[in-house]
Amino acid sequence: MRKGVMRPGHVQIRVLDLEEALVHYRDRLGLIEVGRDDHNRAYLKAWTEIDRFSVVLRQAEEPGMDFMGFKVTGPDVLQQRKQELIDYGCVVETIPAGELDGCGERVRFDSPTGHFFELYAEKEQTGKWGISERNPEAWPEALKGMRATRFDHCLLYGEDIDGTSALLQQVLGFQLSEQVLDRDNGDLRVAAFLACSMKAHDVALVRHPENGKFHHASFYLETWSDVLRAADLISMHDIPLDIGPTRHGLTHGQTIYFFDPSGNRNEVFTGGDYTYPDHPVVTWDAEQLGKAIFYHHRQLNENFLGVVT
Questions:
Q1: pLDDT given for residue 1 in this prediction
Q2: Which CATH code, of 3.40.630.30, 3.10.180.10, 1.10.260.40, 1.10.3720.10, is assigned to 5-123?
Q3: pTM for this predicted structure
Q4: Separation between Cα atoms, residue 141 and residue 49, nearest integer Å
Q5: What's the pLDDT band for 63 if we cut at 50, 70, 90?
Q6: What residues are labeled active site?
Q7: Smallest Cα–Cα separation from 146: which of 204, 214, 218, 200?
Q8: How far apart are CA 245 and CA 259, in angstroms?
């Protein structure tokens, strides 16, 4: 049951050198820099997004993710979900409006995998970048790099993925769209893909002995040709490549993975499945994990599985 959570709204990523990171996210990935604040943070958005920002880069001593935020349909829904999170047993913090530039009050909560999530209802709307809301052109001519169209999802690593999956489903109304089960270990769930929208997933979880780990932030491109163009840019600018271009078996998206200068993994992808409330859960067996992750190669990339921040 949907409970008023619309979509991923932002992610705050820790980077070691803010200026170096901005070259990567702005000039290579193609996000739009929209501002900076007094807390050593830079704000960016993809060109189709109507809200002021979707990515916050914070200079820090180690890379990783601080939190991931989801936008809800209104202030009343925000307060309802806040109380339900408290009743569920989460540690909940209310962050005042303006702590992130242009963002309203946020409700931050912990999770069994050690990740912090946020809900918010209000954020300044600046519209799609470079085109008008009336009689808009197809796309802005001034786009850079890979021309990312939106922040799409995050993949997070932690031990109790069943606990975080249950929290997201029971309190926030997420739907389990796809999973990986280990038949040799009592159908232990080793990966869960959850959606709050019609997308294949809005957040994904993989079982890992260390909590609070960040695997990647993902950005959507329009076409397979754009993914191939991203591969060209990765080579042109000597960006560390993880794997791709290739196709996933899970979600069937067409993808490439690479790293920012701080070691945080990024994905750009296109295509993929969609999720309606009446769709059954798609299940992969762990013994087919190579094909599930890299449909063409059908082999696991240990770097892909093991490198997290």
A1: 58
A2: 3.10.180.10
A3: 0.95
A4: 16
A5: very high
A6: 153, 201, 216, 248, 257, 267
A7: 218
A8: 14
